[in-house]
């Protein structure tokens, strides 16, 4: 089985972002970019399936600007076999990404697509579900355990009330949650090796996909700042303030 | 501009999330119909019919609707969408699982996790863990929207909508339910509790988490939350994670114990009315959002706090 892992280049999760003062968006120049953390978890899971003999090949794919090749290299350095970069300038929404990924899936014919549940920049949590819909494949979202067996895969999902396990027919789309695994660091030899691994370049127009955004972002602003309050000296003072000043007890 | 609202429910009872998502749904377009799909969700449907401003409740019953699986739910909803201009649900894990699947089938881009309805086609939504707010205009032929329930008041009762049984759609047979492990608790639900007590990595073990957090939560009648570090370490179950990629809460009082205040955690609780933090590091970022901060070792401070609360009649 081949596993396809879509990975997104996003602002690193440690960066405190700045909203541009003209309201046109978030400052992205000279900001550290990384692979979306949920996608690292997806790459790791695919590699573990390969190491367990349940997958033969791991292909990482990214939709984005030329620099998204760096994100693909990160996946290759972790151990993925090859990459596909679909070049698109400007923003692409989950629906556009899902349409592009559908074309790649039709080319590559993976048995399983593992991707992040959520990109930490747009916080959309849509692309995996959309890809599954477009392919008419089952979906196992927010996975904390993935166990392929035969022509199916069992997925344990993190849901509001606890955990739910479902069984999906393969091929399927799985999206990762935080507890699925702890992604490995790329070793130096593997980083060197990754430089020689192939990255195939495509564009949305070669694939015949119209990925133009559908939603219009009218304005981006900073949320109202919360004022830090006061330090209290003791538990007694805390209770008295909560009762008499805040009125929440 | 008729709107279909997908209910969150437990068969006999309707989740509070539905009443909150309804508040947004009414602002997007009326009449609003609520879809209650489940094994046999009569109780939930009756409660939905009592919500103010609902015109009709559609009930679909069937074993394949018992567990919120996206594939059969999508087939059901697609069959109904000709009659609606908008589809709304809460940003529950069920809503997040199902709505994008419906959206893609309809070739529509979804608007996720809205925090305000500016106009029927214009929404506010947080991005980058709530560090930026976008105003998004959606001109899609049908609007598909999930709602951040912590940002909306629940709609009250007082309605008496018609309840109509609709026929189930066929199960596409792509997925099946195997089992579940639900966290049992008599405490208030995290998403709707007035008070939340949360613990972080500082708890050190599942036993300590239980020993420190539970009695305090019980004393305050609070729900229990946790940071990602506490969940990853196995101190608390996954459904208690508060944050960017967990639950978003906005209670009257949020008490953070041994939580540093990473942006991903703040994303889930910074809209709480009053925030209390107990942390032994006076530089911890949580103090930048806390209304009342106590720099102390929580293992001594929490017992003292419980004593003081008892004195105050709690
Ligand atoms: C993709 C992604 C998604 C994430 N999503 C979430 C999310 O949804 N929710 C979330 O919470 N995090 C999330 N995180 C993780 C987040 O970045 C932090 O790592 C996490 O919130 C830290 O948890 P913590 O505050 O419990 O632990 P720490 O940061 O380790 O803080 C522990 C705190 O306890 C204090 N302390 C220690 N001992 C004591 C004591 N005896 N008494 C008092 N104080 C003490 C310390 O001073 C410290 O401030 C996410 C991260 C990523 C990358
Ligand atoms: N531009 C992209 N290129 C590759 N994968 C993407 C892209 N955008 C989103 N994804 C995948 O879809 C997941 C969910 O993203 P989102 O729906 O935007 O929250 C991410 O974790 C990625 O796995």
UniProtKB/TrEMBL annotation, chain A:
Keywords: Electron transport, Transport. Its cofactor is AMP. GO terms for molecular function: electron transfer activity. The electron transfer flavoprotein serves as a specific electron acceptor for other dehydrogenases. It transfers the electrons to the main respiratory chain via ETF-ubiquinone oxidoreductase (ETF dehydrogenase). PANTHER family: ELECTRON TRANSFER FLAVOPROTEIN BETA-SUBUNIT, ELECTRON TRANSFER FLAVOPROTEIN SUBUNIT BETA. Heterodimer of an alpha and a beta subunit. Belongs to the ETF beta-subunit/FixA family. This is Electron transfer flavoprotein subunit beta. It comes from Hansschlegelia zhihuaiae.
From TrEMBL, chain B:
GO terms for molecular function: electron transfer activity; flavin adenine dinucleotide binding. SMART domains: ETF (SM00893). Heterodimer of an alpha and a beta subunit. The lineage of its organism: Bacteria, Pseudomonadati, Pseudomonadota, Alphaproteobacteria, Hyphomicrobiales. Its cofactor is FAD. FAD binds at residues 201, 227-228, 241-245, 258-265, 279. The keyword Electron transport applies. Residues 3-181 form the Electron transfer flavoprotein alpha/beta-subunit N-terminal domain. This is Electron transfer flavoprotein subunit alpha. GO terms for biological process: fatty acid beta-oxidation using acyl-CoA dehydrogenase. Keywords: Electron transport, FAD, Flavoprotein, Transport.
């Amino acid at each position: 089985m081949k596993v396809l892992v879509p990975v997104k280049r996003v602002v690193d999760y440690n960066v405190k972002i700045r909203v541009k003062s003209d309201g046109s968006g978030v400052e992205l120049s000279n900001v550290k970019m990384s692979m979306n953390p949920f996608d690292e978890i997806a790459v790791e899971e695919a590699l573990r399936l390969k190491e367990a003999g349940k997958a033969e090949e791991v292909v990482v794919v990214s939709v984005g600007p030329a620099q998204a090749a760096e994100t693909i290299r990160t996946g290759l350095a972790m151990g993925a076999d090859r990459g596909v970069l679909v070049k698109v300038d400007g923003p692409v929404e989950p629906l556009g990404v899902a349409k592009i990924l559908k074309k790649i899936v039709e080319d590559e014919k993976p048995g399983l697509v593992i991707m992040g549940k959520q990109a930490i920049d747009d916080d959309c949590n849509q692309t995996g579900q959309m890809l599954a819909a477009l392919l008419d494949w089952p979906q196992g979202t927010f996975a904390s355990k993935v166990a392929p067996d035969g022509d199916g895969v069992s997925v344990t999902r993190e849901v509001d009330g606890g955990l739910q396990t479902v069984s999906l027919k393969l091929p399927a789309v799985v999206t990762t949650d935080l507890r699925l695994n702890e992604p490995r660091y790329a070793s130096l030899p593997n980083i060197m090796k990754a430089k020689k691994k192939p990255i195939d370049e495509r564009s949305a127009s070669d694939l015949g996909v119209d990925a133009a955004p559908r939603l219009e972002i009218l304005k981006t602003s900073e949320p109202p700042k919360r004022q830090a309050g006061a330090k209290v000296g003791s538990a007694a003072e805390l209770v008295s303030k909560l009762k008499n000043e805040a009125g929440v007890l | 501009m008729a709107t279909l609202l997908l209910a969150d429910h437990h068969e006999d009872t309707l989740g509070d999330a539905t009443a909150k998502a309804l508040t947004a749904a009414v602002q997007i377009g009326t009449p609003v119909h609520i879809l209650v799909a489940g094994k046999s969700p009569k109780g939930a449907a009756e409660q939905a019919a009592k919500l103010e401003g609902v015109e009709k409740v559609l009930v679909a019953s069937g074993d394949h609707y018992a567990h919120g699986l996206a594939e059969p739910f999508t087939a059901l909803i697609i069959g109904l969408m000709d009659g609606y201009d908008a589809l709304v649900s809460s940003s529950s894990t069920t809503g997040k699982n199902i709505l994008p699947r419906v959206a893609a089938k309809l070739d529509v881009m979804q608007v996720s996790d809205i925090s305000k309805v500016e106009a029927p086609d214009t929404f506010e939504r947080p991005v980058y863990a709530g560090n930026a707010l976008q105003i998004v205009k959606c001109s899609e032929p049908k609007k598909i929207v999930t709602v951040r329930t912590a940002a909306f008041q629940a709609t009250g009762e007082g309605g008496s909508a018609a309840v109509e049984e609709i026929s189930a759609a066929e199960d596409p047979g792509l997925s099946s339910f195997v089992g579940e492990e639900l966290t049992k608790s008599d405490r208030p639900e995290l998403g709707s509790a007035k008070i939340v007590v949360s613990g972080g990595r500082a708890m050190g073990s599942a036993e300590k988490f239980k020993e420190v957090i539970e009695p305090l939560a019980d004393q305050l009648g609070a729900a229990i939350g946790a940071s990602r570090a506490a969940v990853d370490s196995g101190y608390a179950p996954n459904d208690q994670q508060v944050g960017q990629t967990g639950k978003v809460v906005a209670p009257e009082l949020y008490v953070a114990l041994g939580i540093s205040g990473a942006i991903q955690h703040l994303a889930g609780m910074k809209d709480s009315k009053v925030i209390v933090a107990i942390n032994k590091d006076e530089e911890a970022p949580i103090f930048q959002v806390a209304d009342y901060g106590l720099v102390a070792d929580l293992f001594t401070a929490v017992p003292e706090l419980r004593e003081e609360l008892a004195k105050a009649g709690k």
